[in-house]
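[job 4417] fold queue: 2 targets
>>> target A
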Amino acid sequence: MSPFEIGMASFGVMVVLVYLGLWVPFALMLSSFGGVWLIKGSPILAGKLLALAASKTISSYFFGVVPLFVLMGYIVSVSGMGRDAFDVANHLFRRLKGGLGIGTVGANAIFAAITGISIASAAVFTRIAVPEMMRHGYSARFSVGVVAGSSVLGMLIPPSLLLILYGLLTEQSVGDLFIAGVLPGVVLALLFGGGIWLTAHLNPSGLGSMRDADDMPVLSRRELLVKGLPLALLIGLVLGGLYAGFFTPIEAGAVGCFGAIVIGLARRSLSWRDFWQVLNDTGLVTASICFLIIAAQMYSRMLALSGVPAEFGSFVASADIGFWGIILAYVGLVIVMGTVLDSSSIMLILVPLMLPVLATMQVDLIWFGIITIIAVEIGLLTPPFGISVFVIKSALDDPEITLGDIFRGAAPFALLMLVLLGLVLVFPQLATALI
């Protein structure tokens, strides 16, 4: 077999292993090891090459940004800032029809700006927002749907773990990617809020028998200051310092962790027991991401040795489907893969394959990264995988709300994400204007 044929066979084996249920990093590692072994003819050499790829990846200074932002997100979650974001957002939108749903979107947007983890947003607001919306007459389907839909803001509004992962895979500036995610994230939040507002006026039964204004809490100026100021300070500290150039993304994560710890201690909402649990959870998530990135580098190294990316690039270039044909085919493939794989795995599999193709077309990799994140995030809301949906289901105490209810409730938000995807494809300035 030629190296190209071995590379394609390894890719096929990896896909089969994933569909059989093997954890994606292990599937990537096994297929990579087998591919390099067959290409080089030595299992020892294959092991050494892949070990070198792994050590080079983890020893990278830029990898330090992952555990720092994960730690900050968990500290923010346990210190009660999610509840504060919900209260502040509801106070701001309480006079609008459908205001509780719009407030949930706003709270998720605020929470996203200081965490960067979609599943954290889904877990927090399932416990906070869903009972409150159902108490005010919103249907269960809409209540869980708005939480599922708006939770994806956590991977688009910076800081975002997926943007960090994309930056590591493509060697692009994480700071530039963060800046590029701001406008699309804000536009998506506005689309979600506008969609809820229009539904409340044109088809109020779609939201249930809502009654927003009867007993919504009205915060005094002092309460608004106490709840809103820590959030504003932390967002300003992390993103303001990053965009102003005072520190790098890694330093921003460290400063954000310190700020979150100080705020939690000052509010007396962060105990030693909570902090120990946060450290454990951060270690587990970081180890999981670490395995993913190591596997991705092994997979990329095997592909490079086999020549598959170069051949794939030549094939696409000679296929005469044009720039938009390639981009739309890629986006469609990402969305389809989102039905069965998690976000990180899709990026680890497809981005290394596309990089040689993009290089020949001189595509802006920052813009392409935002396109990739939006398309990948649609998969968080699509059956049968939809990881955000499963997180919400596991956080619910109501057995009457089924997975089907959550998927159907999230469907309108997935459609609005497709609208945003179309806007960023047609108007690249949405992703690049602030850079």
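>>> target B
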Amino acid sequence: MHTVLHKAETRGDANHGWLHSRHTFSFASYHDPERMHFGVLRVLNDDRVSAGMGFGTHPHQNMEIISIPLEGDLEHKDSMGNVAVIKSGDIQVLSAGTGITHSEYNKNKDKEVKFLQIWGFPNKQNVTPRYDQITLKAEDRNNRFQQVLSPNPDDAGVWIHQDAWFNMTRLEKGRELSYSLKNPENNGVYVFVLSGNVTVNNQSMNHRDGLGVWDVRELAIKADSDTELLLMEVPMRM
């Protein structure tokens, strides 16, 4: 088993006034050659956007982009004609493929929006761009895993062009779960603590810490307090 621990306070910190973003991996002006990616997981940004502000229209190509709102409402528009609002409990995926442009704005004028912006390298280049979003039942992750993303359009959650599975869970203090990798020969898991304190394979983790684990078949998870986690199983080789 191999692991890499990224404590919350070691992340890149970019404060643009309207946007406060914490970067787990190198992004924009934050560059650390030891923190370029975890397998095909390229970007994990923890974003806070001020009321009425947002990201103007900009392009992407050949990237799988996942947005998970944590608080507030995020308004999306893109060159495919999609106009939508995503909120806490939703998950959004954008397969950029041959190329798209999009914008993301805080829909509200009186409160900030908090969301995770996640990018992954695809396993197919130059696919037809695609947009999707779904609303999840938060209670379905209470003391169990709720799959929110997979490679299969017919499976639970959204899907992307990659051999990846994302799960969320909300654990009460003292509860334990084990996560078995779908593809342990090729994949690793990046665990991100949304709230609380947890022990993963004997490694203590706190609010907004991240832990990458690979060359392992299963993770043992114990909640040291009420906690909420995002687990991202991704291929380790691109």
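[job 4417] complete. Note on B: The first strand starts at residue 2 and ends at 6.
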